[in-house]
Inverse folding.
């Protein structure tokens, strides 16, 4: 039985809400509270504890969560707002935008995302429409346009088939270009920098260019993400000071001790994107698909064994929206439900400097919450079966009856 945590004096007003009767995972490491209550006031968590111990005002609106499970809101730390559906987002009617955000994110419990390359002006407008209260949606952080080696951008027909907007990405060949392109984006207000370390058709970014981008971003306290295509890319990026490795790299084979030790020493985090490989390989022979998937899950398993940090991330926008397969593959790599929950909540909140506001269910934190239909500790599939998603105490998704 969890103990009740009492917050500020209770003062019932419009918008207050109590989630009553569910199993509450206040964090990935603590014992769940059975028949719990989460009391929300003014968009924040005012109290959490067992039903018997939390005092609620007589008039408070209650949401029956009996038989349900309540966790902190989820993060997807690798998404893209680059599909054609987001083009000219300023002119899309609010109800349509709201449906698109539900389809992609809130119906699966995602209340925070990090967008790792998209047209920044457009993504910023999307965020503004959400933050103004016009459109219900998640908290969005974005790197804006990713920086690429010269000639790395896919051709127009390829972008068309992938369903993506035509977005010119800044090309960088050396340290000076990397520094100035990064400065420009940071001046325009992005939340981090994304680098594509190489492309199949062109040379890799020199380590000095990665270092230059890292130094500009770190100067203003922002993280740097890398898209690597091989273990060699991972090593170069880690040595140059990158913070988050955006993918596993199964096509170049298992990660050796050298790569893992460097990742560990520099305390990077990894978004595994395991589903992505299955999706890209879907036209290939089953034996090839299995080899690639096994290599990717093996890389994640090795990273976990070395104690590394994992942030849930799927390259969403390039793959199907349903995260069930990613959860299953993470479990196949040896992650427990609680480790997966940490990758969705506390790990990203800490990595992105938000752990005083987000990632746990505790008095004083933002009421970003997910109500699941079942307990994922018993059945992992429950992680993708959402009844309600709340952001700052407001219901932004409700499953239809
Ligand atoms: Zn991506």
């Amino acid at each position: 039985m969890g103990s009740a945590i009492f917050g500020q004096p209770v003062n019932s007003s419009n918008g207050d809400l109590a989630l009553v009767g569910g199993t509450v995972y206040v964090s990935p490491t603590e014992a769940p509270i059975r028949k719990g209550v989460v009391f929300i006031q003014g968009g924040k968590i005012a109290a959490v504890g067992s039903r018997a111990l939390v005092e609620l005002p007589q008039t408070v609106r209650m949401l029956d969560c009996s038989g349900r499970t309540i966790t902190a809101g989820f993060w997807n730390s690798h998404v893209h707002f680059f599909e054609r559906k987001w083009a000219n987002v300023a002119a899309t009617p609010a109800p349509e935008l709201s449906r698109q955000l539900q389809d992609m994110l809130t119906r699966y419990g995602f209340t925070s995302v990090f967008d790792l390359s998209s047209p920044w002006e457009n993504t910023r407008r999307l965020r503004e429409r959400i933050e103004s209260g016009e459109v219900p949606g998640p908290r969005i952080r974005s790197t804006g346009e990713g920086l690429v080696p010269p000639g790395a951008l896919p051709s127009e027909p390829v972008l068309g088939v992938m369903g993506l907007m035509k977005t010119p990405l800044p090309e960088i060949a050396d340290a000076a270009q990397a520094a100035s392109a990064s400065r420009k984006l940071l001046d325009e207000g992005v939340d981090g920098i994304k680098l594509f370390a190489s492309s199949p058709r062109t040379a890799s970014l020199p380590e000095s260019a990665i270092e230059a981008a890292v130094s500009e971003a770190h100067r203003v306290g922002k993280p740097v993400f890398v898209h690597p295509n091989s273990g060699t890319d991972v090593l170069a990026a880690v040595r140059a000071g990158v913070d988050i490795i955006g993918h596993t790299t199964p096509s170049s084979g298992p990660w050796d001790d050298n790569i893992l030790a460097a990742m560990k020493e520099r305390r990077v985090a990894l978004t595994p994107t395991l589903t992505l490989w299955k999706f890209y390989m879907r036209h290939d022979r089953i034996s090839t698909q299995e080899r690639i998937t096994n290599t990717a899950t093996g890389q994640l398993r090795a990273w976990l064994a070395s104690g590394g940090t994992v942030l849930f991330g799927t390259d969403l926008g390039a793959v199907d929206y349903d995260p069930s397969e990613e959860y299953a593959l993470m479990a196949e790599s040896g992650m427990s439900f609680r480790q997966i929950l940490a990758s969705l909540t506390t790990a990203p909140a800490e990595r992105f400097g938000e752990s005083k506001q987000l990632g746990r269910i505790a008095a004083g934190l933002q009421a970003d919450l997910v109500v699941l239909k079942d307990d994922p500790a018993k059945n992992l599939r429950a992680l993708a079966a959402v009844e309600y998603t709340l952001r700052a105490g407001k219901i932004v998704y409700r499953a239809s009856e």
